[in-house]
Specification:
There is one protein chain. The chain has six helices and no strands. The protein is mostly helical. It has one domain (about 25-100). Helix 2 (about 25-35) packs antiparallel against helix 3 and helix 3 (about 40-55) packs across helix 6.
Length: about 100
């Protein structure tokens, strides 16, 4: 009986944590997975909140890739395509708002 109760207690403790991780957006997950010194749950969560307010889901997924491939950000920034330029304008606005809102 005791092992069953212990297992149930562990599951009950793990569910809120797994729900939090599953609920994290693409920016927050990428931020938390990065090797940046400031990458902590509070900062990454704040950045995700700003992303939710300013970027579409597809833009968030695209921007999240920049955490693992910064060269992709540079390629997007210097691109001549209208689509990339429009995304970059949204991304820059997001970055400025995240910096203002989340800088502590």
């Amino acid at each position: 009986m005791k092992p069953i109760m212990l297992a149930a207690a562990l599951v009950a403790l793990a569910l809120p944590l797994s729900a939090t991780i599953a609920a994290a957006g693409p920016i927050e997950r990428a931020c938390l997975g990065s090797d940046r010194k400031a990458a902590n749950r509070a900062t990454c969560g704040c950045i995700q909140q700003v992303a939710d307010m300013t970027l579409r889901g597809s833009d968030q997924r695209r921007a999240a890739k920049f955490f693992t491939d910064p060269d992709q950000a540079q390629e997007t920034r210097v691109s001549k395509s209208d689509r990339d330029n429009e995304f970059w304008a949204r991304y820059k606005a997001f970055g400025a708002q995240a910096e203002a809102y989340c800088a502590g």
